[in-house]
Every structure is written in C-alpha cells, then in structure tokens.
Amino acid sequence: MDITPNSNTWFVTGASRGMGRELVEQALARGDRVAATLRRPGQLDDLAARYRDRLWVRALDVTDTAQLRTVVDEAFAAFGRIDVVVSNAGHGVFAAAEDLTDAQIDRMIATNLTGSIQLARAVVPHLRAQGGGRLLQLSSMGGHLAFPAFSLYHTTKWGIEGFFEALAEEVAPFGIDTTLIEPGMVRTGFFDAADRVPVSAPYRGGPADREPIPVSEMTDSQENTIAAVVRAAVSAHPPRRLVLGSDAWHLMTSALRQRLADVESQRANAATADAVPAHR
Fold first, then answer.
1. Nearest of 117, 116, 251 to residue 183 by alpha carbon
2. Residue 153 belongs to a domain
3. Residue 92: inside a domain, yes or no?
4. Number of domains within the chain
5. Which residues are catalytic?
C-alpha cells in the first residue's frame, strides 16, 4: 500500500519528550495530523495551542492495556483513518542483572515489550479494516547487540524484534507494512530519565560498573534521525528494518558477522544431533 507524501495522520505513543516529541513536531510542521499520547498530556499544551485541531492529545500509560485499547479506538474514530502508527513509549534501567528489583523488571517489560505488543494488537484490526497502513516500532541497535549493565533493556528490544519479525509476515497480506526503527547513540532525554541502580559489591570495578553508552559518545542527531523515520514512513516501500546512525551500522554489522561466524563454525557439530537415517 502506498500513502501520499503529504497530509497523513499519525498515532504516536511516548510523545512527551525525546524522539516521540520530535516526531510529533516534525509531522505537524509538514502539515500532517497527529494523535499524540503520553502519560501527562499537559506536556504538549504548547503544540496544542499552535496546531489546534491537527493535534489530538490523550493520556495513555501503555502498561494499562484496557486504556490503550480505548484510546486507540477513540483515535481511529476521531480521524476516520490513521496512516502511520508509531510505537515509541519506553524507558531504560542501568543495572547489573543481579541488582535489578522485581518491580523494575516488571515495569520495563510491561512498558517496552508488552505495551508495544498490545499496541500492535490493538491497531492491526483498524489498519486491516481501512485497507492497510504503516506500523513503526522504535527498537534500537540494542536489539542486535548488548552492553553490560543494560541487560533488561536489551531483553525488551531483542523480544520486540522477534515479535515484529513474525508479525510482519502475518499482516503483509492486509496491506500493512511494519518497520523496526534501529537507531544508534542518539542524544535524547532517554538516558537522563533512565533509572540507575548502584552496583553491588561483587560488581564494583567490573564491566557493569560504568554507563553502557557514555554521553560523550552519543553522536547521532535526534532531528536527523526522526527526519529519516518520517521519510521511511511515507515512502512507497518502507524497509522492514531502518538502521539509523553510522555507529549503529558499524556496531550492528560487526555483531551480526561475529554471530554468523560463531554459528558457521559449529556446522559439523550441529550435524551430530541429526537423526540417524533408517537402514534400508
């Protein structure tokens, strides 16, 4: 399904700050309509005053599945059609895996993984009924590689990558295109807002006792990253994966090559698990 390069309608979660807010601003600036959702709607009052009826704002905590379904239904009813759905809500926790609390684990998975899955499940029937659309999921280069002290974040990103890998095939016959957005080290408020758990004694001085991604190494532009997302979203044939940032490309290709090499080296041993052919 092709959508026009202008006058599209977007649905965005996690629109309060960072890339979510940037996406809302860029979409509105190009003349589009946006259904923006966030936990505290007042954070978009400035944009609401400026763009009026082109910006529809609702409170949404993506961990509340009942609320999520209600808001999705209301947005499609309000606009009649939504061309692009962007699942962006999420947060991070810096901690050694052993030091994480049960509550932190539950919250991260509920927000970054379960919330994203439930959003996709909620919007697909609407997209199918209208003849298609675009479903974009904010993932990360962290869906293909991993840093110490960021294990829970990687859990959610590797998980959502697998979910969308299967979902893409399921919904393609309905004219629904899916894209996993995989940025590198983008300077946003995400890292400032992330929880930080002091490492316990056994991990002090080790790999988990430092920020996985130092701020000084965050070289990718938020504005340019989102501009690339918008271009892909309204293109005739959006990619299944959108890698953004030279750092992401280099780190991801290196990690994938190493993983492939590890698998290829095991070919002979893998065959030892094959069933023994029956004697004739």
1. 251
2. yes
3. yes
4. 1
5. 139, 153, 157
In a domain, 200, yes or no: yes
**Residue 132: inside a domain, yes or no?**
yes
Output the domain CATH number for residue 83: 3.40.50.720
Residue 99: give the domain boundaries: 9-268
Over the stretch 205-237, which tens digit does the pLDDT of each residue have? 999 998 666 555 666 789 999 999 999 999 999
pLDDT for 244 beyond 80: yes
192-201 per-position pLDDT tens digit: 667 889 999 9
What's the 3-state SS for the chain? CCCCCCCCEEEECCCCCHHHHHHHHHHHHCCCEEEEEECCHHHHHHHHHHHHHHEEEEECCCCCHHHHHHHHHHHHHHHCCCCEEEECCCCCEEECHHHCCHHHHHHHHHHHHHHHHHHHHHHHHHHHHCCCEEEEEECCHHHCCCCCCEHHHHHHHHHHHHHHHHHHHHHHHHCEEEEEEEECCECCCHHHHCEECCCCHHHCCCCCCCCCCCHHHCCECHHHHHHHHHHHHCCCCCCCEEEECHHHHHHHHHHHHHHHHHHHCCHHHHHCCCCCCCCC
